[in-house]
Amino acid sequence: SDRGDYAGVRVLITAGGTREPLDPVRFLGNRSSGKQGYAVAARAAARGAHVRVVSANVALPAPAGVEVTAVGTALEMQASVRADLGWADVVVMAAAVADFRPAAYVESKIKKTHDPADPEAAPVIELVRNPDILAGLVAERGDASTPVIVGFAAETGEPGRSVLALGAEKLARKGCDLLVVNEVGVDKTFGLDDNTVHILRRDGQPGIQAGPASKAVIADAILDAARDVRLGSL
Ligand code: C5P
Prior knowledge:
Blueprint: E1 10-16, E2 20-23, E3 26-28, H1 35-46, E4 50-56, E5 66-71, H2 74-83, E6 90-93, E7 100-102, E8 127-129, H3 133-141, E9 148-155, H4 163-174, E10 178-183, E11 194-201, E12 208-214, H5 215-233
Parallel strand pairs: 1-4, 1-6, 4-5, 6-9, 9-10
Antiparallel strand pairs: 2-3, 7-8, 10-11, 11-12
Helix pairs in contact: 1-5
Bound molecules: cytidine-5'-monophosphate.
Residues 14, 74, 93, 95, 97, 99, 130, 132-134, 151-153 line the site of cytidine-5'-monophosphate.
C-alpha cells in the first residue's frame, strides 16, 4: 500500500552482489541481480521512507527518490553501511556478500602459464574470510532496539534439512530481528521477477509466507513485517 506508513522512516538497504577482485580483469562474484533489494527500496520510497541503497554491481536504474551509493567489494559495502548505521531506523540486508575474497590482489593479469618451470601448472588461489556485515551490525547495535535489522538467507536446502530449518538456525545465529528466507537454485530466484519467501521473526511471533509473487509484493510483505517489529519496540 502507499498509505504512507513509512513517512519519515529512514531505511538503509544493501542490494546486489559483491565482487572480489583477483587481478585487473577477474573477480569472484555471484548471481545476485539486485532486483529484490531494489524492489524493497522502491516500495519503501513509495510508502514515504527516506531510502538509501548501498548497491554492489547492480545493472538496474535507481528507483525514484532513492539515494544510491555504488560499491564493489564486501569491505567497501561494510564501510558504507557502518557509516549509515546511526542514520537508519530500518536496515534491510538484501545483498549477496562474498564470504571469501582472494588473499592477495595481483596487480597485473595472471597469465595462463604463470610458472615458467611448469607451463602446464594451474595457479592456486588463496582465499581469506570477509567480515559478516550483518552480524557486525547486530553486535554494534548491542541492546538498542534501533535500527530494526532484516537479514536474508538464500538456501538450497540440504539432505535432511529443509530450507526453513536452515533459516531458523541462521536467524538464531545472526541475531537479526527478521530473516527473509528464500529458496534458490539454478532455476529459482536469481534474476527472476517472481519470488517466494518465508519471513521469520526472532521474537517468536509467527512467521509469514509470501509469494509466489512479484518482488514488489514480496518487498511490501518484508516492509510490513519490519514495520510491525519497529512499532512493537518503540
Ligand atoms: O550467512 P549468509 O551469507 O547466508 O547470510 C546472509 C545474510 O547475511 C544476508 O542478509 C547478507 O546480506 C548478510 N551477509 C553479510 N556479510 C557477509 C555475508 C552475508 O552481511 N559476509
